[in-house]
Amino acid sequence: MARLVIVSNRVASPKERAAKAGGLAVALREALSQRGGLWFGWSGETEINPPDTPKVFRSGRVTYALLNLDPEDQRAHYAGYANGTLWPLCHYRLGLLTFRRADWEGYRRVNEHFARALLPLLKPDDNIWVHDYHFIPLAAELRKLGFAGRIGYFHHIPWPTPEVYLSLPSHAALVDDLSHYDLVGLQTENDVRALLTYISSEVHGWIAPGGTVGLKDRRFRVAAYPIGIDAEAFVSDARKSVGKDEERRLNESLAGRRLAVGVDRLDYSKGLPGKFAAFGELLRSYPEHRSKVTMMQVAPLSRSEVAEYQALRRELEELGGAINGEFAEFDWVPLRYLNRPFQRATLAAIYRRALVGVVTPLRDGMNLVAKEYVAAQDPEDPGVLVLSRFAGAADELKGSLLVNPYDIEGMAAAMDRALTMPLEERRQRWRTNMDNVETNTIHHWCQRFIDELTNVTDQFGPPGDQ
Ligand code: ADQ
């Protein structure tokens, strides 16, 4: 079996506990420890003119290789091009997009530095799997250094339609970078269509059935790999929470009220101001819910070094304060707003207690919270998922109440419908969603991507023969 090499910006260290590292990091670590392999990424540390030699250590069957970055390059790469340019672009927020040539150059320098440091650790038959928009040019940089083996890329966030994508000054260079991979994975068929349309209409590539793409002298495959969760672990955490101290405290604090829950990184793609406004609208237009429902929004801080995230935090504090100011009673606070991370088991208990899961991003590659909420429900008395049609998960979770996150009154109406839905309908809708969550797990996702990466080059001829 070919060795697996994973490249990602952040690496879940062997000591990081499952509950803290997040579902994706844990799944990747598991995929690596089953097969044995290498995890390569940023050390989290900066150093002026860092050498191309990572810190390498082993834990069980996994070798970790962590690289320091130059502080200015790290800023240009992470806060600059990755999160100031690509993130807003891919989430259709052109008004928030900044493009600076210095950031683009810094982004490329970090990818070159990564490639130089990774190359000596590679074997020709490795399966290299690169994660996310921080590293789109990595394959091109490895090819420049002469590496001809298999490299796959997975894009965790949406791929925008050509009209939006063309706003990126470096659009052609970035897709040229993608063409150095053997396999490019996106979250949904919509994303695949968007990328293939751009390739055929803007850069004169050709597309064969099955998603094989020809661009200049290169061949690669583009396909959808919708990511899943570790459904079993969530089901078991949620079941175990029953009767535990945290569940008891939560129930006592709610005093028999219904709970609506939102869990999102504090990020402008997640549609948090609209969600707060919709909850305010629910209380205003459906007064029968006043004092009967509590909304809990868990929103751990994220990317605080980027100005837009600081502004969003202030906006939410104001909006949340205004809702509580308008509707609170001396014995009821409508909105509980928490800016901190929780253990997975605690999240599972909160999801299970909530009659409504409110997941309303303006755009989202997939959205794992939607799937976690479904997995954590009590099958006998499940809650209802209110889900944005612009989350990748909307393609799969057909039992949800789909909403347009730009329609505040529409979201309030959906919350009302969820809060008053008969048990039989809740069960049917939940079953539809759960069938999907249980079938397409994170383990299937990992396995399918790796299998197709292993086989993809057979279809094009041996590596280097293109
Ligand atoms: P994210 O934008 O981070 O991921 P999401 O898919 O919802 O969004 O994943 C967030 C994860 O963080 C979930 O597993 C959730 O449980 C966890 N989390 C959130 N708040 C937490 C808290 N307070 N405490 C602990 N854990 C918390 C990106 C893309 C998504 C895509 C994923 C995976 O933006 O669209 O689904 O990658 O591909």
TrEMBL record:
The keyword Glycosyltransferase applies. GO terms for molecular function: alpha,alpha-trehalose-phosphate synthase (UDP-forming) activity. SUPFAM superfamilies: UDP-Glycosyltransferase/glycogen phosphorylase. Keywords: Glycosyltransferase, Transferase. Pathway: Glycan biosynthesis; trehalose biosynthesis. Its EC number is 2.4.1.15. It catalyses: D-glucose 6-phosphate + UDP-alpha-D-glucose = alpha,alpha-trehalose 6-phosphate + UDP + H(+). It is an enzyme of class 2 (transferase). Belongs to the glycosyltransferase 20 family. Homotetramer. Probably involved in the osmoprotection via the biosynthesis of trehalose. Catalyzes the transfer of glucose from UDP-alpha-D-glucose (UDP-Glc) to D-glucose 6-phosphate (Glc-6-P) to form trehalose-6-phosphate. Acts with retention of the anomeric configuration of the UDP-sugar donor. PANTHER family: BCDNA.GH08860, TREHALOSE-6-PHOSPHATE SYNTHASE. This is Trehalose-6-phosphate synthase.
